[in-house]
Amino acid sequence: MLSRAAWSLMLKKSGHGRREMHSPEAPARGEGKMPPYANWYAERSYPMPEEPFCSDLNAEQQALKEKEKGSWTQLSHAEKVALYRLQYHQTFAEMNRRSNEWKTVMGCVFFFCGFTALLIWWQRVYVYPPKPITLTDEWKAQQLQRMLDMKVNPVHGLASHWDYEKKEWKK
Amino acid sequence: MASEVLAKHLMRGLLARCLRIHVVEAFLVSLGVAALYKFGVAEPRKKAYADFYKNYSPEKDFEEMKKVGIFRGIT
Q1: Residues of the signal sequence (chain B) (predicted)?
Q2: Which residue of B has its CA nearest to A152?
Q3: B68/A149 Cβ within 8 A
Q4: Cα A28–chain centre separation
Q5: What pTM, to 2 d.p., does this model score?
Q6: Which of B49, B64, B69 comes nearest A155 by C-beta?
Q7: Closest by alpha carbon to A1, among A55, A33, A63, A45?
Q8: What is the Cα–Cα distance from A73 to A149, expressed in whole angstroms?
Q9: Where are the domains of chain A?
Q10: Does the structure's ipTM exceed the value 0.85?
Q11: Which pLDDT band, with edges at 50, 70 and 90, does B9 fall under?
Q12: Do B65 and A156 touch (CB under 8 A)?
């Protein structure tokens, strides 16, 4: 959304409109483009599109457009709604409606996280070399014993949790 | 569209009022946090160290460590 506003600003500054970007001006230039790249597309961060939603008007719609040039108090409610619908694709309520897309997104995110976990598990089993001796249980026990003998951190830390009389961890 | 007259809203000084409230609130919150830290963390820590060193004897500690055999310079 941010990029659309920035892109449009860049085009305006360079003197081109969105329609004339790659011209020579060909008929029905905006056709075939889908939203959000169509010229009539609007969103909450870009509420005023370049082109009206309906550009090819039949006779009745053109008559209505002529009537619009006069005083608006003469337009009936249905006519005003019809004019709005000619100009804009959706109302703000319609364009800002929420959707369930987040569920799909989160589902795919979790799915691929799980898949990655499987890959990492395989890697742990088949790729990693054996542990260095300093990480074996025997070595770690000897290391811990030495730390307790040295009384590391006797006030708040490791040695403060060891009962030296009973030779066990304090409850 | 309504025909009755509404009371006039407060039109000025809104930011100043907001700031005043928030300044007072910030002051109180920071005082509270500082007091909590002092009495929740700093004082217990000071007490723990004081208790540890009350009956501490470095000679006794040294003898215990020497007996276990962690020193390399002496046995």
Answers
A1: none
A2: B65
A3: yes
A4: 33
A5: 0.54
A6: B49
A7: A45
A8: 94
A9: 130-170
A10: no
A11: confident
A12: no
